[in-house]
Each structure stands twice: as C-alpha cells, then as structure tokens.
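Regression test case RT-17, inverse folding.

Input:
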C-alpha cells in the first residue's frame, strides 16, 4: 500500500472515530465544535496522524496533547481510570476516542475567533490547538498551516 493510501486510511479512521465520539457524546460537555473533517485535518497537521506516536517531550498521541491541555479540557479518562492516576493522562490522549473528546472539550472552553475574520472555523480551532487558548492570535508555524490548509482544501473542495 502506498504512503498516500495509508494516510487516507488513517484520515478516514480519524473521521470515523470523531463521528463515534460525536454520536456517543463520550464525556464531551456540549455539542462538539470541530467537524469530522476539521478533526482529521488537525490530526494530519499535528502529527501526520501517526498512530505509533506515544509520548515525546510531554506531548502525546495523534494530536500531541500535553498534560496542561488535557487538564484544561477536564481530565477525561478511559473507563475505570481515576483522573488522579499517574496513567490517566497518557491512557486518554493516546486513545483516539478519548483524545478527540479532550480536543472537543478544550475547544468548547477556549472557542474564539483567533484570526479576527468574523467566523470561528477550523483555522481558529487549529490555532487554539497549536498555540493555546490564550495565545491563538499568534503566528502558526508555516508547515503546520500549510498541511492544515491543504487538507481542508482537499476535503472541502475550496
């Protein structure tokens, strides 16, 4: 299978996982603000949807979530984990469903128009994800933005 096919399969997997999270409302406090396409493109821009990524330099999983991000999103956990358990953070953010719910909760908390274009869209969520809830008006790394933009254009036909 080619690398492009593998990325497409992972992208579709992330979309399916997002849909499952949206349908099950797994610990997401309100309606999830990120669409399945946005969540997939965020994954692509953040890690290339690398499923083998565990934890490096304090950031974990497909979405490279940090402990502070996870805590701000409500310390979601898998099944019987206590949020105070040492393994609760890596267990959640390395699990696609829990990581997607974490991102949705974080966006609910910090939702804002980061680029001042009058709408809150995936570009704003990507800035919040990468630069934080209080720093999203900053400049995104060029490669991150380019991958996000290409992905959104491809899947939205813009």
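Golden output:
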């Amino acid at each position: 299978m080619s690398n492009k096919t593998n990325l497409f399969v992972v992208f579709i997997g992330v979309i399916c996982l997002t849909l499952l999270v949206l349908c099950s409302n797994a610990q997401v406090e309100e309606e999830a603000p990120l669409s399945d396409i946005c969540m997939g493109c965020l994954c692509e821009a953040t890690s290339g949807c690398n499923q083998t990524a565990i934890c490096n330099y304090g950031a974990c999983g497909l979405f490279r979530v940090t402990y502070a991000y996870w805590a701000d999103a409500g310390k979601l956990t898998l099944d019987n984990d206590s949020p105070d358990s040492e393994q609760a953070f890596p267990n959640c953010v390395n699990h696609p469903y829990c990581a997607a719910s974490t991102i949705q909760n974080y966006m609910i908390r910090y939702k804002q128009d980061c680029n001042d274009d009058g709408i809150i869209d995936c570009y704003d969520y990507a800035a919040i994800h990468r630069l934080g809830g209080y720093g999203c008006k900053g400049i995104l790394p060029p490669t991150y933005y380019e991958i996000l933009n290409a992905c959104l254009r491809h899947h939205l036909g813009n």
